[in-house]
């Protein structure tokens, strides 16, 4: 007899932003989202890379303006080493160079002030990952 596993793995998310209060806010908003589990928080891009690797994350939310390694540079490294990881970028202001770098990666930069849109994007990725 074959037993089908009913519990599927939730979308494993890492939230990377240098503002601790913002990370807590995002984590709180993602808490009730079906099939999403926040597996780590990072204050800079280097920490985000480490946590993404260590937790086998499926998605990383990266602030484009972080110390030590900015979100765009972290996204470039993730694309090189872990191409299966979904990347969502967000930032507080529009910078044409940042948008151009993001576009080269096939990404857009979401407005931090529109957090509900970012949460909706993450929820959509979780829904798309649901095999049922």
Structure description:
By secondary structure, this protein is an alpha/beta fold. It has one domain: Rossmann fold. The protein contains 5 helices and 5 strands; from the N terminus they run E-H-E-H-E-H-E-H-E-H. It has helices at 20-30, 45-55, 71-81, 96-104, 115-129, and strands spanning 11-16, 36-42, 59-63, 86-91, 109-111. It has a 5-stranded parallel beta sheet with strand order 2-1-3-4-5, with helices on both faces. Helix 3 links the parallel strand 3 and strand 4 (86-91). Helix 2 (45-55) packs parallel to helix 3. The radius of gyration is 15 Å and the shape is globular. The relative contact order is 0.19. Residues 1-6 have low confidence and may be disordered.
Annotated CATH homologous superfamily:
Response regulator
Which oligomeric state applies? single chain
What is the rounded distance between the termini? 21 Å
SS summary, helix count: 5
Helical content band: 40-55%
Strand content: 15-25%
- How would the global form be characterised? globular
Top keywords for this entry?
132 residues; Rossmann fold; five-stranded parallel sheet; 5 helices; 43% helix; 20% strand; disordered N terminus
Indicate the topology.
Elements: E1 11-16, H1 20-30, E2 36-42, H2 45-55, E3 59-63, H3 71-81, E4 86-91, H4 96-104, E5 109-111, H5 115-129
Parallel strand pairs: 1-2, 1-3, 3-4, 4-5
Helix pairs in contact: 2-3
């Amino acid at each position: 007899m074959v037993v089908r596993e009913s519990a599927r793995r939730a979308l494993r998310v890492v939230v990377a932003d240098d503002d601790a209060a913002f990370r807590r806010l995002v984590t709180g908003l993602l808490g009730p989202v079906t099939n999403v589990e926040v597996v780590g928080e990072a204050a800079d891009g280097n920490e985000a890379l480490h946590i993404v690797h260590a937790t086998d994350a499926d998605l990383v939310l990266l602030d484009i303006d972080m110390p030590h390694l900015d979100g765009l540079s972290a996204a470039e490294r993730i694309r090189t080493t872990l191409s299966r990881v979904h990347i969502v970028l967000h930032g507080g202001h529009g910078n044409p160079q940042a948008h151009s770098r993001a576009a080269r990666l096939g990404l857009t930069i979401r407005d931090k002030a529109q957090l509900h849109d970012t949460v909706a994007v993450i929820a959509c990725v979780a829904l798309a990952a649901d095999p049922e």
